[in-house]
Design goal:
Length: 416
Amino acid sequence: MNTQNILIVRYGEIALKGMNKPYFEKTLLRRIRKGIGQRFSKEGDAQKPICEIVDGLIVVRGYAPGDEEALAQKILRVFGVATVSPAWELASREPIDIKEAAVQWVERRLGRETGAAGALVCPERPLTFKIFGKRSDKTYPITSPELAAAAGEAVIDAFADLVKVNVNDPELRLHIHLRRKNVLLYEDMLKGFGGLPLGTNGKGLVLLSGGIDSPVAAWYMAKRGMAIEAVHFHSYPYTSKRAEEKAAELADTLASYCGRVKVHILNLLPAQEALAEVCPENEMTILVRRFMMRIASRVAEREGCGFLVTGENLGQVASQTAEGIAVTDRASSFPVLRPLIALDKIDIIERARDIGTYEISILPYEDCCTVFLPKHPATRPAIGQIEASEGLLGAVRIAALEEEALASEELYIAKA
Ligand code: ATP
Ligand code: MG
């Protein structure tokens, strides 16, 4: 019997797109190919799998069976992917072949359940199963329920007491999907993150600290299709090199979703020192944050980013009161996106764990925000007062400090 191991990739929201659907499909296909390519790019690797759209379904084929798991995991990180199913593609649509394939699928599962490679031993209790039939080709002479029933009977004939039908809560849910040119068998639907393919919605510059929030904010924007670059500020030598490495490590994790993340690493210390010399201590956090916004705006302009992205979250800390955010916002020359603004910290942490940034974020290295941290930060700053404090430094000095920070730039390119 001619069966081939394949991966079926389904997309969610893209399916709702009207006229633009082909554009989104093509971009998603390109993203999946890139994601797969990363695994198969090394010299001497097995041949690259083929990824194509067949009858409205994205299918990946032509890989070694041992690669299936890793390949599926890669694809699940591609934004726009709703689910992935490891499947068998059957070239024949003859009922006899479909039944045989169903039997083989269950046999493989039984072997796995009982821990025996090949030989089946009697499990403690029968494996419960249900077969679901689906027919895209309505001209096929057998209906979906008939197909499922025939395959189910063949499975019972083959394995007798080792299996048992359970229509309500089966352990094995085998889907048989009859299509125009072939038949697909699959069981699991591994869940992806959904969203939209990267690169379909502009480019944002993320202010990436070493904390929990900003990597999650970056991830959320990328999930909606926004290409991501990052800027990280440090206060070396007040902060250690490890703090910068931590930001780079976070970017590496983001790159496992985005493919590549360019990180601009800048020294903010001269600006912080200058502010500390002349400005009110309780305004330091907000003044530093505004410096970050101005410098990031310059980087965004140079790099062709249309937005800034931060991990700010309403009311989380003293600088993120409604007033604090409003005053911070005014220092940016680009729209500032704050995808976490209304989330609870507990949900942000859960997401951070889920996407793999949490363990890096909690490493205990000093952030540049903790340098010159005021004892009693202003929680209700007014724009007039803050601008007056910046006036103490003067526009010329501020511009020079921005230049100095920009001149300190080091680049890190995170790759998946
Ligand atoms: P995070 O967990 O992202 O650090 P936080 O709750 O610690 O967030 P703040 O330190 O007040 O919040 O920072 C608010 C936002 O400002 C961050 O989410 C990030 O976008 C930006 N930011 C803070 N520190 C830095 C930094 N060192 N480099 C770049 N951006 C920063
Ligand atoms: Mg922080």
